């Protein structure tokens, strides 16, 4: 109804690109993906090489600063990240204020936003200036501190969200353990004197963290950059990214895969499930990807890691069903035609389940490593040549033309 707004179509070129299928919003030197060939590289290094030979924190340094660290750079980065794991004791009250059955992702999202309130030095509007400039040492050191804090405290906040749900006391991050070892300690520690994380599980978690560290402009990373483009502090931007990742089409998919496998039950029920997917009554969670049109290269690494974990924990009872589902989908014309193949989430949930993590904690295990990628992109954006331009997309308006207001009693 109403007249079309004048000249709406005469304001220059405006491209309608629903879901950003073809829009590049930034130039980036961080992560390369070739979705047709199934290639993923961090700063040029193939993910398979990194997963086999590197570690999560080494890759974090690589993603954020652009090159593999020397030994002393690595040691410095690791000790800063681990040192910043300790949370202010006030945070205990914050976590205890949630409902007893709050989803850990709700807690974690809120916790990142809460964290920002501790560090006004990271908030440009409170400082009244642009904070970050390439070549300015004070500004780069300020940025580094926020990076150490967010990566260091991600495990602590995640473990607090885990323990509060179980009515258990919080654990101060230990010294002398690796990043993933410290995380497992904070999750599992029940007061034993000689607690040590199982080395196979510690290594498996490190590999999973490493391959989840970045994946260029997925929904959550885009949200982080969209939010940060207003020059808000990185804690608020990370909280926004965390909220975006929570959805079942993104980081919630690893949780959705297990719920799907439980609902299918035995392998003999797989054909009926596949038919329901083809009738669009169900979604095959853990399959399909906006960028990959072949298997996600990370899915092979996860599959291999699963075998190492199952050797310790025993096989997950859902593994047979998962394998039957995978094999059936991979040779079905519906999935072949649409180039649908397993993504990283198809197998990762089975590992987390075997390691004893509760189902709704799985997306948290995605956020903890992914803060690395978000921070790498945030740093790159803050230091980009020419400064930050606020992200403000346009729309194609399809609503009413001008209308005159009518008092309520005169409306038909
Ligand atoms: N099950 C069944 N059909 C699917 C699936 C799936 N998992 N994924 C896509 N399709 C179908 C679509 O219905 C569509 O069919 P059509 O052309 O006949 O309408 C076609 O494949 C193309 O799919 P789109 O939805 O256009 O693909 P898009 O790039 O928009 O979505 C997404 C990608 C969201 C990942 C999608 O594949 C999906 O929902 N997968 C399941 C959820 C999942 O595993 N998410 C994790 C992604 S990876 C990550 O975040 C780590």
UniProtKB/TrEMBL annotation:
Pathway membership, UniProt: Carbohydrate metabolism
Region Disordered, residue ranges: 1-12
Signal peptide feature range: none
GO BP terms, alphabetized: monocarboxylic acid metabolic process; tricarboxylic acid cycle
Gene Ontology MF terms in the entry: acyltransferase activity, acyl groups converted into alkyl on transfer
Record's keyword terms, sorted: Transferase, Tricarboxylic acid cycle
Active site: 289, 345
Biased composition, class Basic and acidic residues, residue ranges: 1-12
Similarity-based family: Belongs to the citrate synthase family.
Name the UniProt record assigns to this protein: Citrate synthase
Section of the entire sequence shown: 48 to 459 of 492
